[in-house]
Design goal:
- This protein is α+β, with helices and mostly antiparallel strands.
- It folds into two domains: 238 residues, Aminohydrolase, N-terminal nucleophile (Ntn) domain (Glutamine Phosphoribosylpyrophosphate, subunit 1, domain 1), CATH 3.60.20.10; 194 residues, Rossmann fold (3-Layer(aba) Sandwich), CATH 3.40.50.
- The strands form five sheets. A seven-stranded antiparallel sheet has the order 3-2-4-1-10-9-11. A six-stranded antiparallel sheet has the order 5-6-7-8-12-13, with helices on one face.
- The protein is globular, with a radius of gyration of 22 Å.
- The relative contact order is 0.11.
Length: 468
């Protein structure tokens, strides 16, 4: 669920890219990087940590002059997550290589489900790797494919990739955006004072003063160069299944994703959740920040007072879901949220959160709410029970770490939540309700989204899993 950004033909492209990456920081907090064409060659700089950590030092951007750039914020699902800074920086992006057609830098959002299989084949052919990311596999595959030019090589290489990917690529003459055949990961195209750019979400376009034009289509290669805009297909057999978790949690609330307002979708989720799981209570409290729109919708539909400050959040702590390890997640939750006890003492409380994945965070927050004096705590979850690992870009690769995996029915999940997390009641939005909130009709034979984490119906081939 990384964030990617790219812009073509503007003065000080690195500064614009850094601003775009700052708007996408919620998509990845482990590392970031920028690649720039300076008029002679592509220069890259990659750092561990947040974008703001380096932007406070002007020398970082001063070392990256140029008129075209790409950038990346990292949330790792593949590649080393710990070790020394040098080891971790090796897996930060953009990645860079030189081919017979010149230099290429690439930034990737998604996860390739046949990366290890392809990597083994390439290594048998004598190719070496500098990182252990799936992104380098894609870069090597493009660089070694058949074709008389880069576009032909991409058209031959990209159909071999399985899984989810949105790419931005930079060459000395071109900026290229690519989206996988199912469109699992988002990628949008915009315009700014005659310049063109790509971003994972529209919030990054807004921050840099760009106008949203459209999404990059599934299976599309979108090229920007001195000749203007060129669109090519690398696969005509597209069956769009964009990730539904983008709308429910991952994307920023001020973004348009798949043509939908994220905030409106989440408010609709809350309203449907109130219809499906009503309760008598005194106050509705969101678990910030991503639970706020759904809680607002729940309160509106149920006519229960909405209290956004039931939990007080420290804004100096980033997203906890995308922390690479459980220890880091729990440590940051301890620092991130505290209960405003004066708003909950003696009250029946509805807690609304965006999802329940591992359960550890929710257990802690329910305990804190009771200690603060709440009379009862009723959980309402704006996402159905998460039963299956994601292989498309979210770091839940094993079923064992998922709270609901061994529960055969929704009733089993609710009983487990009440017993192990300590809630008085719990209600998850239904899959049908979630689709309705997203503006679609649920049809299991013709799915509009990738909902594999909920149903186990994966839209991609799990090649590496099958070869294990």
């Amino acid at each position: 669920m990384c964030g990617i950004f790219g812009i073509y033909d503007v003065p000080d492209a690195a500064t614009v890219t850094a601003a775009g990456l700052h708007a996408l920081q919620h998509r990845g907090q482990e590392a970031f990087g920028i690649g720039v064409f300076d008029g002679r060659s592509i220069q890259t700089a990659r750092k561990i940590g947040l974008v703001s950590d380096s932007l406070s030092r002007r020398d970082f951007l001063d070392a990256l002059p140029g008129s075209s750039a790409i950038g990346h914020v990292r949330y790792s699902t593949v590649g080393k997550k710990d070790g020394t800074d040098t080891e971790r920086t090796r897996n930060a992006q953009p990645l860079f290589t030189t081919t017979m057609f010149g230099e290429i830098a690439i930034a990737h959002n998604g996860t390739l489900t046949n990366a290890q299989t392809l990597k083994h084949e390439l290594m048998e052919g004598g190719y070496t790797f500098q990182s252990d990311t799936d992104t380098e596999v894609a870069l090597k595959l493009i660089g070694t494919a058949r074709g008389h030019n880069l576009l032909e090589r991409m058209q031959n290489a990209l159909p071999k990739l399985e899984g989810s990917f949105a790419f931005v690529l930079l060459t000395p003459k071109k900026l290229i955006g690519v989206r996988d055949r199912q469109g699992i990961r988002p990628l949008v195209f915009g315009k700014r004072n005659g310049a063109y750019l790509f971003a994972s979400e529209t919030c990054a376009l807004d921050v840099v003063g760009a106008e949203y034009v459209r999404e990059v289509n599934p299976g599309e290669i979108f090229i920007i160069d001195s000749d203007g805009l060129t669109s090519r297909r690398f696969d005509d057999d597209t069956q769009p299944r964009p990730c539904i978790f983008e709308l429910a949690y991952f994307s920023r609330p001020d973004s348009l994703v798949y043509g939908c307002s994220v905030t409106e979708v989440r408010k609709n989720i809350g309203k449907i959740l109130a219809q499906e799981h009503p309760v008598q209570a005194d106050v509705v409290i969101p678990i910030p920040d991503s639970g706020v729109p759904a809680a607002h919708g729940y309160a509106q539909e149920s006519n229960i007072p909405f209290e956004p400050l039931g939990f007080v959040r420290s804004h100096y702590v980033g997203r906890t879901f995308i922390e690479p390890g459980q220890d880091e997640r729990m440590e940051k939750i301890d620092m991130k949220l505290t209960v405003n006890r004066y708003l909950v003492v003696g009250k029946d409380v509805v807690l609304v959160d965006d999802s329940l994945v591992r359960g550890n965070t929710m257990r802690l927050l329910v305990t804190r709410m009771r200690r603060a004096g709440a009379r009862s705590v009723h959980l309402r979850i704006a996402y159905p029970p998460w039963r299956f690992p994601c292989f498309g870009g979210i770091d839940t690769p094993t079923a064992e770490e998922l709270f609901a995996h061994n529960c055969k029915t929704d009733e089993d999940v609710t009983q487990k939540v009440c017993k192990e997390i300590g809630a008085d009641s719990v209600g998850f939005i239904s899959l049908v309700g979630l689709y309705t909130a997203c503006g679609e009709v649920y049809d299991k034979d013709n799915l509009a989204f990738c909902d594999a984490c909920l149903t186990g119906d994966y839209p991609m081939k799990l090649v590496d899993q099958e070869n294990m």
